[in-house]
Every structure is written in structure tokens, then in C-alpha cells.
Amino acid sequence: MMISEHYKQQLIKEAKQIDVSLGKASEFEKLVQEITDGQMDKAILELIKNLGILTKKQSLPGMEKKQEKIIEILYKYLGSSKVDGLFQELKESSNVSLDELLNQLDELVGLENVKQQVRDLIVYNQIQQLRVENGLKKSDKTLHMAFLGNPGTAKTTVARIVGRMYKAIGLLSKGHFIEASRTDLIAEYQGQTAIKVKRLINRAKGGVLFIDEAYSITENDQSDSYGRESLTELTKALEDYRDDLVVIVAGYTSLMDQFFESNPGLNSRFNTFISFNDYSLDELVRIFHYICNRNDYVAEDKATEAVRDLLQKKLNEKEEYFSNGRLVRNLFDTITLNQSKRLSKLKEHIPKESLMLITNEDVPQND
């Protein structure tokens, strides 16, 4: 990435001004210097955390504007995806009680077998920790998992919750979540892939590294030397950091089965396999209402019936790789677009209730 000297100088200038306002104990300029010197993630997280504390205090006039200014420059200097990812990491590293996280798990539609397996894992690991505290041996099973199933079955959501649960019971030091794909694990040039994987592992240590469609790492089979290099480095990390890292690989069941069969060294390092089944019709309708509620929409009864009929048709026609919640989300997007087009034709004032209401007319009839 091309480093912008202009934004670098702006960052340093704003940090200096905050330090001057706060006095000797403030170290905003030092953190910014670490960021611009390439000591990225830890310094950025510390800077974001300190800016948040600063805003809460609001002890000095104009401090909130200074905070907004430095965040704005940070976005320009590093890019939104980098800063947003670290904001999310900071949020996920915060302390949340196990009970609260179990409630979040229970609120997910369906997935009863998944919920039970996760609860069993929590109980099992709590007892293992208790054994250690009493001088007894604990199991040598790893924390790594494989999530098997079609897209749109909340695999990513459950992975996030698991990481935070493991932090809550003391298995992980941070509990944050890093999502990766083939492009994050494989470099363009010979010899760079191992370095790329090591950097990713360092970011994920203390939390969860979630690799979706893990089989794509070696999608070209034996000819994919970069993929093999990535897998070798990843397999090593699974063992080296097993006490403070959870790697969750995910993807279609049949392809994941093939992936493990062709990589026996990997298979032995994953002790937990969780199947995410396709949703039933009732569960898909519940997901539709959940999405509506989250976005301030309400579907009238006739609209719900039309959605149910449409989803039943999709289920009747479904192939091996059914998209589940993703299908419902796409349907919701189509319906709200249709609602917008319908409302735009009205000449009179549109009340709040009408802006929220989804009617039968908004549901695609011949999809």
C-alpha cells in the first residue's frame, strides 16, 4: 500500500495537539508514530481505545471534534476495511458474560443440534479447566473445529459467539474474530505465502481464525504449490498455538469431507465437527420476520403467506447447495425494493406506518 506522507503528517499533528491539551501523561503522538512506523495492529487498537476513553471524559472543550478528526485521518491513511476490522476486533475483545452469550446463541433461529454441541463444548472445557486447577490431567483434544453445511446457516455468527464464549470461560485471551479466505492465506510470489500465513496467525492469536471454504486453499490439487505451502504453515500453527487460538474451517459438507480426506495431517488436529443443517420452511419464515424486525419493517398477513409460498417453492426445487438465510436476505431485498417503487407512485404524504408495511403486492409473484 502506498503510504500517504500527507495523511501521516496530519495524524502526527492532530496527536500532538491532543497531547498538548492533556499534558505529559498523554501518549497519542507515540501511538501514532508506532502506527506510521509499521507497528500497526496493537498500536491502532490502543489508539482507538484511548480515543474512546477521551470522548467519554469530555473534560476539555473541543476534544470530541479532535477525536473525530483523528479517526477521519486514520481511515484515509489506512483504509476503511483495516480500521473497521480493528474496531470490530476491539468490540469483540470486550468482556461479555457467558450467560449473555448463551442467550445470543439461543436467539438464533433453528440450529438445535449446533446449540447443543456448543453448550456441550462449554461444559466439557469448563470441567477440563477445573481438573487442571485440582492438579489433574486434562484432555489433549484441540479447540479447533470444522463447521459443515450450506451457506446461510449462521456458521460465521456461531463462530463469533464461540470465540467470545471461550474468552468468557478463560480459554482464549482475547476472543476476537478474524475471517479469512484463500486470498488471505496465499501470496502471489514464491516464498511469500508462509510469511502471509504467519502474519494472519499472529493477528488471530488469542481469538478465532475462521476460514470459510477452506478447501479452496488447495483448489488446484497437487499443482497448487502455494496452496500446499499455506496448508503446511497452517497445520504447524494449529499445533504451536493450540492453547490460545481456535481455527474454525467451514464449507460445504461434501467438499470439506474431501478436503480432510486429502489432508490427513489436518484431520487429526480437528476434534470437533459440527453439521449445520438446512433450515425448514417455518425457520426460513422466522428468519424473514427477524430481518424485517431488525430493519423496521412489518409484513402483513397476506404478504407473509406469499413469502411462505415462495419459500416452499424454493425448497421443493432446492439443489445440493441451498443458500438458506442468504436466500431469505435476497428475497427481503427484492421485497423492500418493490415496496419502495410502490410507495414512490403515491401522490399524497406517506405516513410512517406505510413506510414500514410490506404488502402482498411487494412480494414477487413469479420468482
UniProtKB/TrEMBL annotation:
<dbReference type="GO" id="GO:0005524">
    <property type="term" value="F:ATP binding"/>
</dbReference>
<dbReference type="GO" id="GO:0016887">
    <property type="term" value="F:ATP hydrolysis activity"/>
</dbReference>
<dbReference type="InterPro" id="IPR050773">
    <property type="entry name" value="CbxX/CfxQ_RuBisCO_ESX"/>
</dbReference>
<dbReference type="Pfam" id="PF17866">
    <property type="entry name" value="AAA_lid_6"/>
</dbReference>
<keyword id="KW-0067">ATP-binding</keyword>
<dbReference type="Pfam" id="PF00004">
    <property type="entry name" value="AAA"/>
</dbReference>
<comment type="similarity">
    <text>Belongs to the CbxX/CfxQ family.</text>
</comment>
<dbReference type="InterPro" id="IPR000641">
    <property type="entry name" value="CbxX/CfxQ"/>
</dbReference>
<protein>
    <submittedName>
        <fullName>ATPase family associated with various cellular activities (AAA)</fullName>
    </submittedName>
</protein>
<dbReference type="InterPro" id="IPR003959">
    <property type="entry name" value="ATPase_AAA_core"/>
</dbReference>
<feature type="domain" description="AAA+ ATPase">
    <location>
        <begin position="141"/>
        <end position="280"/>
    </location>
</feature>
<dbReference type="InterPro" id="IPR003593">
    <property type="entry name" value="AAA+_ATPase"/>
</dbReference>
<keyword id="KW-0547">Nucleotide-binding</keyword>
<dbReference type="InterPro" id="IPR041627">
    <property type="entry name" value="AAA_lid_6"/>
</dbReference>
<dbReference type="InterPro" id="IPR027417">
    <property type="entry name" value="P-loop_NTPase"/>
</dbReference>
